[in-house]
Design goal:
Blueprint lengths: L49 H7 L1 E9 L2 E6 L7 H12 L1 H4 L9 E3 H13 L8 H17 L25 H7 L3 E2 L9 H4 L4 H13 L3 H4 L7 E2 L10 E2 L8 H11 L6 H10 L5 E6 L2 E8 L2 E5 L13 E3 L9 E2 L21 H21 L9 H18 L1
Parallel strand pairs: 4-7
Antiparallel strand pairs: 1-2, 1-3, 5-6, 7-8, 8-9, 9-10, 10-11
Helix pairs in contact: 8-10, 12-13
GO cellular component, one term: cell periphery
Protein name: Ubiquitin carboxyl-terminal hydrolase
Function: Hydrolase that can specifically remove 'Lys-48'-linked conjugated ubiquitin from proteins. Has exodeubiquitinase activity and has a preference for long polyubiquitin chains. May play a regulatory role at the level of protein turnover.
Length: 403
């Protein structure tokens, strides 16, 4: 999702900006109205123009054939609230279990309608057992959820941990996924080689750690109290081991910063492998990456993301996008996961040209030009190609005017 030009992200008190420690940190989530720890708009609601506000309240519906039934998919415009759409598309795709449907032939849906469907689905999770403890716990969860639901259309506070594909710092927003039994995954895992420097820290904690290490004036704080590095006996006159004045390996703070720089896409190959192994076959889930929430499924051992870009609204053969590369090199598939002929992500599916149709059109244009010359009593060989083209163009223009 793109940040509208008239909105600016506000500073998050929980996440200190890397500029305080000197320099920007690559890999930091970009604030957006769709999601993220710093994804809430800073301007008051009255600062928005009515046209933009009305545009954000309506979302187009794309109807696909999913498991033999016409199923709606909510498409996302430039300012679409991706957390809400990702969850609702899961409920629509598994309508047999959730019971969430839209009227047939519905082409546009409002945010209020989506919220109403989501609220009904959450209320249906009420425990059937008459236990007083369960009922009180459910009532408390509902109260917490009601305060979270409005954020689905503005941004969720999600903070990943680099230790597992389903590890997130617990925030009240996570209760929505828990109540609906919708798995939430990410693929931003730390490689085993640098796991000691990152550890079990979340993204916010890792940023604070890097800033602290950059501001540290003594080497002991930079190396985080791990003791001075040591060098072999060849460095000391008397043999044995002795403290080394310069570290043999980068300090953990520098390693952590290098990790964020090298994983700016917020997806690592180690994370992609762990993600493929963790997601169950046929499981519908939400995938979080770069402050964007996507509907994800695993089909025959491969991961796919639901295509919700409004540019593909009329493309029936573009439904899923493969997730097999950290660099974004993906393929488009239809509803049955067959490879589509879409050549780009701009929404244009270019079919291979039919050379027979092109040649037939050229021959037809030539015959029309010859007929036009004979009607005017001209010798075809006396006219140049340019004059023939002009006559043909004039004839087509006259036919369009008559129509």
């Amino acid at each position: 999702p793109h940040l509208p030009s008239d909105e600016q992200p506000k500073e998050d008190a929980r996440e200190k900006q890397p500029a305080e420690g000197g320099g920007d940190l690559p890999g930091a989530p970009v604030p957006s109205p769709g999601a993220g720890a710093v994804g809430e708009p800073a301007e008051p609601p009255q600062a928005r123009t009515p046209s933009r506000e009305a545009e954000a309240d309506f979302y187009c519906v794309k109807w696909i054939t999913w498991k033999g039934e016409r199923t709606p998919v909510i498409m996302q415009s430039e300012n679409g609230p991706c957390p809400l759409l990702a969850i609702m598309n899961i409920l629509f795709l598994q309508w047999k279990a959730s019971g969430v449907k839209l009227p047939p032939q519905k082409e546009v849906v409002t945010a209020e309608e989506l919220m109403a469907h989501l609220g009904d689905c959450i209320l249906s999770t009420q425990p059937r057992e008459p236990s007083e403890g369960l009922q009180l716990n459910f009532q408390q969860n509902i109260n917490d959820t009601m305060t979270v639901l409005p954020k689905l259309s503005t941004g969720l506070d999600v903070n990943v941990r680099f230790t597992g594909v389903s590890d997130f710092e617990y925030t009240p927003e996570c209760i929505v996924f828990d109540l609906l039994n919708v798995p939430l995954y990410h693929g931003w895992l730390v490689d085993p080689q640098v796991v000691q420097a990152v550890g079990k820290l979340s993204y916010n904690q890792l940023v604070e750690k890097i800033i602290t290490c950059k501001q540290a004036s003594d080497s002991s704080l930079v190396s985080e109290g791990n003791g001075p590095p040591r060098r072999p006996a060849a460095c000391s006159p008397g043999g044995g081991w002795m403290p080394c004045p310069t570290p043999l390996s980068p300090p953990p703070g520098l390693v952590a910063e290098q990790f964020l720089e090298s994983t700016a896409s917020q997806l690592t190959y180690h994370g992609l492998c762990e993600l493929t192994a963790a997601v169950r076959e046929g499981e519908l889930s939400v995938f979080f990456r770069n402050n964007h929430f996507s509907t994800m499924i695993k089909h025959k051992g491969h991961l796919y993301l639901l295509v919700t870009d409004q540019g593909f609204l009329q493309e029936e053969r573009v439904v899923w996008e493969s997730l097999h590369n950290v660099d974004g090199d993906s393929c488009f598939c239809d509803t049955d996961f067959h490879l589509s002929h879409a050549l780009g992500k701009e929404g244009a599916t270019a079919a291979p040209p039919d050379h027979h149709l092109q040649q037939r059109q050229v021959d037809q244009d030539y015959m029309i030009a010859l007929s036009l010359q004979q009607q005017q009593g001209q010798d075809p060989s006396a006219l140049s190609d340019l004059e023939l083209a002009r006559q043909l163009q004039q004839e087509e223009y006259q036919q369009q005017q008559q129509q």
